Amino acid sequence: MKYILIILVTPILFLSCSTFNDAMVRVGELTGNEQLVKAGADMTPRQEYYLGRSIAAQVLTENNLVTSMEMQTYINALGHYLVLHSDRPHTFKGYKFAVVEGSSPAAMSAPGGFIFITEGMLRQVRNEEELAAVMAHEIAHVELKHAESIIQKQKRTGLALGLLAEAAKREFEDDVPAELFEWGAKGVEAVVNASFDRGQEMEADARALEILKLAGYDPQALQTILLRMQSSANFLSRHPSSDERVRAIYERVKDHQPPEVEERRRRSRRLHLYVNSFL
C-alpha cells in the first residue's frame, strides 16, 4: 500500500483538467479516499456562488466601491442586458457588476458571476461599444467557468501533492527526497498565481464576440480596446501577448457591419451621462 498511492497519484499531476477530474475520482475510488472523490467532482452552482462571494469580498477589501449610484446602476443594467445574450444568463444568485476605485485599467470576474471594472478601465473606453466588449469578455469567462478550472486545479493539485508527500514520507521515513517537496511547492505556487492562459483568453474573446453580435453591439470594439490596452503595463503583466488574440478577432469580425451611426451616438451619450461625468 505504501507504493500504491505514489504510483496512482504521480501521473495525474500531468493530466489535462478534464482528464485530471476523472483520474482524481478514479484514484479516490480505488484507494477509498473520499477527499479525492470530492476533489474530482465539479463545483455546484451554489459552491461557485459562495467561492465567488469570498473572492469578491477580498477584492473589496483592497478596492473601494465607486460611490456613484448612477454609475453602478448603469453598469449593472448594461451587464444584465449582455448576459441575456450569453449561453449562461443565470447563475445561482444572479450576476453582480460593480465599479471599483483604481487608476489601473482592469476588469476581472469571479465564479458565480461577480464582475468588477476599475475606474481606470472606464477611462480607457471611448464609447459604450468598447465598454460592452470588456464586459462581454468577462461574462464569457464566467460562462466558460475559467476561474473555476484554475481554482479546481489548484485544489486538486494541492491535495494530490499532499497525499503524495504523505505517502513518500511513510515510505522513505526521514529520508524524504528534497526535490519532491520543492517541486510540489513550486507547482502549487504556480497554480495559485496563475492568470487565464492564452487559450482561455482566446476562447473568452470568441464567446464575447458572439454575445456582442446577439446584443446588437459592434464586435470590432473588442479588437479596438485590446489594441489600446497593449500600452498598459498592468494589462500586459496579467494577460498573455494580445497580438494573436487581435489577429483572431479581426478574422472573425472583418466582414461584420457595425450598428447604425445614430445608435452608436446614442450609446456614447449614455456612457458620458452615467460614467464620464463622474470620473
What's this model, at a glance?
With 279 residues, the protein is mainly α.
- Return Rg in Å: 22 Å
Domains, number: 2
- Summarize the main sheet: 3 strands, mixed
What would you call the shape?
A: globular
* Uncertain spans: 1-10, 12-16, 175-193
The level of helicity is 55-70%
Distance between the termini: 64 Å
* Rounded average pLDDT: 78
Describe this structure in words.
- There is one protein chain.
- The chain has 2 domains: 2-44 and 147-192, no CATH class; 66-146 and 196-278, no CATH class.
- The relative contact order is 0.12.
- It starts with a helix and ends in a 5-residue tail after the last helix.
- The protein is 67% helix and 5% strand.
- It has a 3-stranded mixed beta sheet.
- It has helices at residues 2-12, 17-31, 34-39, 45-62, 69-83, 119-124, 128-143, 146-172, 178-192, 198-215, 220-229, 233-238, 243-253, 261-274, and strands at residues 96-100, 107-110, 114-118.
- Mean pLDDT is 78; it is low at 1-10, 12-16 and 175-193.
- The protein is globular.
- It is built from 14 helices and 3 strands.
- The chain has 279 residues and is mostly helical.
